[in-house]
Amino acid sequence: MNETLVKSATLAELAQAGSGHLAYVKSIRSEDVQRLFPQAPELQPGVELFALLGADGTPIMLTDSREAAVANAWANNLETVSVH
């Protein structure tokens, strides 16, 4: 890929380019769930969960296993990507 093209793209442009096609799995603590999923019930503190998020950061689902999040992405024809 052209390095100049990658450097000139904004995060918003990259997110929009992947919208509906790409998703990422993010490990989150139960204490942070309400920020991404305000409709979620109160959870016991200290639990590691996994959020499936769209390329633009839109929350898609919350689960207790990374494998379930990836499977949901595949079931919805979304390619999961690593985010560092």
What is this entry, summarized?
This protein is of the alpha+beta class. The protein is built from 4 helices and 4 strands; from the N terminus they run ααβαββαβ.
- Note the main sheet: 4 strands, mixed
- Total of domains: 1
Tell how many strands the DSSP assignment holds. Answer: 4
Order of helices and strands: HHEHEEHE
Helix content: 25-40%
Seen as an oligomer or otherwise, the chain set is single chain
What does this 3D model show about the protein?
The protein has 84 residues and is α+β, with helices and mostly antiparallel strands. The protein has one domain (3-80). It contains four helices and four strands; from the N terminus they run ααβαββαβ. The protein has helices spanning 3-8, 11-18, 33-36, 66-75, and strands spanning 22-29, 48-54, 59-63, 79-80. Strands 3-2-1-4 form a four-stranded mixed β-sheet, with helices on one face. A hairpin with a 4-residue loop joins strand 2 (48-54) and strand 3 (59-63). The protein is globular, with a radius of gyration of 14 Å.
Q: How are the SSEs placed, and which strands pair?
A:
Layout: H1 3-8, H2 11-18, E1 22-29, H3 33-36, E2 48-54, E3 59-63, H4 66-75, E4 79-80
Parallel strand pairs: 1-4
Antiparallel strand pairs: 1-2, 2-3
